[in-house]
């Protein structure tokens, strides 16, 4: 078995380009397993991260080596972009392309990469622990750090349930959520608060599975900010669905 330092060095130099290249190799992607993971993320997310621990022991890496999960998420965003474009766009192909490009490049990849980078930096800088079990063991543990691609995997896992709530569930409930009145405001804002809270909770689960991290409960602290924003939005009688649709579609 290669030392962890050599494994990390090898992974960091080849993993990302190889991962992107594999996105074009459809026959080599395990879509059945990815769909199983997506289902478990909605009903039993801890089970998904238990398989991640097994993956780390067999592949010597925490990050996925199969891009099928990301491909399925992109396909989901494609379908929802078509639906939202037909509902609020001008019906042109250009408006659909703009919406799909924005959702993928900004919402999913751009913001996701920024959040993954922030969590990756926080985990490796402030949450990494070095247990005292001898000089040799401690030196080895210092080499095991959070991979950036694993941080992005955590974002992808957390993004899926949030996307199902906001892109699919919200779309189906639009006739109710866009009505005038207090009930529509409560339902809309509760949906957004639930979606963002689930995102941060799943992020916490992703980092809590790493045995070399401590104080991972820090990743659930943003839920407090979400709840505060939820209360303020209700006090201001602000319908978040109406606000967001105006931002995206004018």
From TrEMBL:
GO annotations of cellular component type: Golgi membrane
UniProt KW keywords: Membrane, Transmembrane, Transmembrane helix
UniProt-annotated location(s): Membrane
Residues annotated as transmembrane: 68-87, 99-123, 190-207, 219-240
Database matches in InterPro entries: UNC-50
Membrane association type: Multi-pass membrane protein
The family this protein is said to belong to: Belongs to the unc-50 family.
PANTHER family: PROTEIN UNC-50 HOMOLOG
Name this protein carries in UniProt: UNC-50 family protein
Taxonomic source organism: Prymnesium parvum
């Amino acid at each position: 078995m290669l030392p962890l330092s050599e494994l990390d060095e090898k992974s960091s130099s080849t993993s990302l380009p190889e991962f992107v290249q594999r996105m074009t190799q459809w026959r080599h992607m395990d879509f059945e397993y990815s769909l199983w993971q997506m289902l478990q993320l909605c009903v039993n997310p801890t089970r998904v991260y238990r398989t991640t621990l097994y993956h780390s022991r067999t592949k010597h890496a925490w990050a996925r080596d199969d891009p099928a999960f990301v491909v399925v998420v992109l396909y989901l965003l494609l379908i929802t972009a078509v639906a939202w474009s037909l509902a609020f766009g001008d019906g042109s192909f250009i408006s659909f392309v703009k919406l799909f490009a924005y959702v993928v490049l900004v919402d999913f990849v751009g913001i996701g990469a920024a959040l993954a980078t922030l969590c990756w930096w926080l985990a490796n800088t402030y949450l990494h622990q070095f247990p005292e079990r001898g000089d040799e063991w401690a030196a080895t543990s210092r080499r095991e750090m959070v991979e950036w691609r694993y941080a992005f995997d955590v974002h992808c896992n957390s993004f899926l349930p949030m996307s199902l709530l906001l892109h699919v569930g919200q779309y189906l409930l639009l006739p109710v959520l866009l009505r005038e009145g207090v009930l529509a405001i409560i339902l809309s804002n509760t949906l957004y608060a639930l979606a963002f809270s689930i995102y941060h909770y799943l992020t916490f689960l992703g980092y809590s599975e790493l045995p070399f991290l401590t104080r991972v409960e820090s990743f659930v602290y943003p839920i407090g900010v979400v709840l505060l924003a939820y209360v303020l939005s209700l006090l201001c009688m602000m319908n978040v669905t109406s606000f967001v649709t105006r931002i995206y579609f004018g």
